[in-house]
Each structure stands twice: as C-alpha cells, then as structure tokens.
Specification:
By secondary structure, the protein is mostly helical. It has a domain of about 90 residues. It has seven helices and two strands, in the order αααβααβαα. Strands 1-2 form a two-stranded antiparallel ribbon. The N and C termini lie far apart (about 85 Å). The model has no long low-confidence stretch (mean pLDDT about 80).
C-alpha cells in the first residue's frame, strides 16, 4: 500500500485537490455548437471576415490544413513537369506522383505520413514522375500503360 505525504484532504494544499468542472447543460452545448457552425458557414460564404478566434491556431483549423496540403501537392506536381509523362494530361485534379522504378507502397510506409512534404524536404529527388491516375493505375497493375502500347503499335 502506498504511503502518502498528507493524511487527509484538509492537510493537502489546494493546488493538489482536483476541482470539478462545471458542466454546461445540453441546451447550452447545442446552442454553442449551432452558433459556431453558423459562423463557419458565414466565413466560407464570404459574409463574415474571420477573426483570430475563428481561425484559432493553424493546427486546429481544418481549412488551413486543406489549403496547405493543396499547395504542397501543386508545388510538387509543377516541379516534376506539370503534365502526365505518358498521355500528356494537364488537368491538375487528374495528376499524381509515380515512383519510376515501382515500390511506391513500401516507400510510403517507410517515410510515414506526408509524401508530398517528404519530396519537398528532400529537394525533389530523382526517381519520380507525374502520371495521371489512369496511367498510374495501369502501370501499377498491368506493368505498362495502354498509351505506351498504342505508341508501340502505331510505329
């Protein structure tokens, strides 16, 4: 059995005694949630200018993370050529980064979370290329993209 320095609560300093948090009623919590949702919707619609309390910190604001990830992806795709190497697709939403020699799944597991961040931190290493999702899928599952086969047949 543990021996404590203080024998009773009266002897214990106030700093060590846990205080109960005052609980808000369900109605108050719902009202606050409704109010905060309305503010977020107004900010998204451009009706309200966000205040510092609306933005909170960067790590708590989901809009910041979404925008940051989009900028990272855009930077990486622009650096590696901005179009599909195989078919020439230029639409940003259809493009992805491909490991030229394969092994992308293993590599992503090794580096952990943010693949685009890793590429930026390592100064855009060689061994990667931009492919559209269709070409990337075909290369991964069939070892050759249909566009490559068409190029071979038309020669």
């Amino acid at each position: 059995m543990k021996k404590y320095k203080y024998r009773s609560l009266e002897e214990m300093p106030v700093a060590f005694i846990k205080r109960e948090k005052t609980k808000r009623s369900r109605k108050e919590r719902e009202k606050t949630a409704w109010y905060m949702k309305r503010r977020r919707d107004e900010i998204k619609a451009g009706i309200r200018i966000p205040t510092p309390s609306d933005l909170r910190t960067k790590c708590q604001n989901p809009h910041y993370h979404r925008e940051y990830a989009r900028r990272q992806r855009e930077m990486v795709i622009k650096n590696y050529g901005n179009k599909c190497v195989c078919c020439g697709e230029k639409n940003y939403y259809f493009l992805s980064i491909d490991h030229i020699n394969g092994g992308g799944n293993k590599h992503r597991k090794e580096i952990g979370g943010n693949f685009y961040g890793w590429l930026i931190r390592n100064k855009f290493p060689k061994g990667f290329q931009v492919l559209c999702y269709n070409c990337n899928f075909a290369k991964g599952h069939y070892e050759k993209c249909p566009h490559e086969l068409i190029k071979i047949l038309t020669k």
